[in-house]
Amino acid sequence: MATTAARAAPLPPTERREALIDVFLDLARRHGRVPTTSEIAGAAGVAEGTIFRVFPSKDALQTAAVEAAFCPASARRDFVAIDRSQPMRDRLVAFAASLQRRIRDVLDLMGALGLSQPPPLHQHAACLETGRHVPSEPSADCAALHVDLFEAVLDLVDPDAITVTPHQLLHRIRLLSFSGSHPGIAHGELLTPEEVVDTVLYGVCARPGPIRD
Known about the structure:
By secondary structure, the protein is mostly helical.
């Protein structure tokens, strides 16, 4: 059972909602199962009744937590924050590392909650502005905003240094990041971000001369 935290300071409903979502996700990933309301309250430093003043039920909290976890806004925030002044390989390693963290978080959560596939993705302009999920009804702009997630990192690539398009390069890094981060697919031999990027950029064959970054 989670250790009881110090009593949390009062928060506005929106902030309390976000705090409870964060606690739910942290406990689920760490313990590999759905946390109890007692564990959530203890880790959040609130009384159990506080949970139900913010969410109508534990299921509602779980649904909100899953939506927040799968919203790509935080991933986009991390991608945008990558230092563009670095050499291209270093930029792409940072991209792969961010991808792998997200992939492992998602896999851990799916395992803990018994999910066989991700939920439908609902993201809106407010999510992009804040860098985290903002609850709202699905709308026609969702698909376009999710495309923007990938468009936000095209400038990590120097087009003149590669023989494919930047989108194709990033797509391959994403595919190898996923397979190299999944214990079942990788048979326990997980790939580091450096291995992912170097495999995509340079392959594994010995080369006669220096490799241009």
